Amino acid sequence: MNLRIIITTVFIFLAGALTVQAATFGEQGSGTGDLSGLDGYLYATQYNNSTAGNINRIFVYLTAAGATGAQGRMAVYDNGGTNLPESLVVQSNTQTLVAGWNEFVVASAAVSAGTYWISFQFDTSNTRIGYYIGTVQQTQYRAFSPVQSFPASWGTPDGNGAFDICMYATEITPTLTVTPTYTGTATPTYTRTATHSPTSTNTPTYTMTNTATITPTNTVTSTLTSTLTPTPTGTITPTYTGTVSPTPFISRTYTPTATFTATSSFTPTSTITITSTISQTATVTPTYTVTLTSTPVYSPTVTRTGTITPTLTTTPTPRQAYNDLTEVRVFPNPWRGDIVRVQRRVVIENLTRDATVYIYTIDSRLVKEIPPGANEDNGRTNNPGNNGRAEWGLANQDGDPVASGVYVYVIKDPAGNFRRGKIAILK
């Protein structure tokens, strides 16, 4: 007998964990010399980044900060086809310089492993920066009026040198270890082969046999019989009769009279008669005899074989909102149409709960407001408000695509947190 069986199998595993690893690329030493006269120029030094991650800080070592209140900015550019700095990846805000290591916080920007250029600009000529001489690192420079936003494209260099300038970038590499929930639907085909194997079933039969046992019983009865036997007894009593004669003497005459008084004396005699009576009592004791009768019963033995091919659906650990806006990450930035051909959107993540994202032009005209709960542009623009992530579908308030250029994003939340940065759109 063949039987086809369809079985649905569900495999369930639980969620995983998010870990963050830190990496750096650049020169972390303080140098053996210093450079000055840096105002009025953009400088960029080429470094190799061995790991993919998200740049979040840039550092530079100054042997002298320069005049009081000296200002500076830093940025990272990607490497162009001519082995020169090309497109802006991320830049910092302007801040006051100090002697020693200066830390510039930037909006988190995704980078892959490869070659990048760390760039800087300062506004005073007596700011001095540490460097090493005689290394293979390549430094480019070009005229630029500091201190202002870095250009989206670095431009044509005015010169170069073999300087290993003491600056580096740090990046975090979030690694999401997902232990997904697998939902597998298996449709195996089983071939069922039934083999009849006899199995003996014992049925007991009870037979009762009565056995009689006779027990005699003797009963002794005593009978007491009394017999009276009379015994006559005679008593002779003499009677004296006197006769008076007129004589001087009295003459007495005895006349014996016999009087018989019969007195019966009874003597009891006991006679015991023993009578023996035998009573027979029959006691019946049943005896059971069990006789086993074997009846064969046939039971099939089923052997199933099948191959299960499940369809797996992965459900990763859900995102959660952050407590502040210090780790905001915008990517891809710049958004480039020649590279990003499918995902026509920019992602803003690591947001706080119920944060609103505003997109402005460089001259502060509102382009798009993305409040909590937004879901527009066929889903390309959205902001759930509770998972720390929003997406801008590169459209304005009317749903029209925006032009290429540099845009400013502003993030605000009900708790008063604030963050601002720039997004470059290159179509």
Short description:
The protein is mainly β and 427 residues long. Among the domains are: 17-177, Jelly Rolls, CATH 2.60.120; 329-426, Sandwich (Immunoglobulin-like), CATH 2.60.40.
Explain the layout of strands and helices.
Elements lengths: L16 E10 L6 E3 L5 E9 L3 E12 L6 E9 L5 E7 L3 E2 L3 E12 L2 E9 L5 E6 L5 E5 L15 E3 L1 E3 L1 E11 L15 E35 L11 E5 L7 E5 L13 E35 L25 E3 L3 E2 L9 E4 L6 E6 L4 E5 L3 E3 L4 E3 L5 E4 L12 E8 L5 E9 L1
Parallel strand pairs: 20-28
Antiparallel strand pairs: 1-14, 2-10, 3-9, 3-11, 4-8, 4-10, 4-14, 5-6, 5-7, 5-9, 10-13, 11-12, 15-18, 16-17, 19-21, 21-26, 22-23, 22-27, 24-25, 27-28
Radius of gyration: 64 Å
Overall outline: rod-shaped
Named CATH topology of one domain: Jelly Rolls
| CA distance, first residue to last residue | 68 Å
**Strand residues, percent:** over 45%
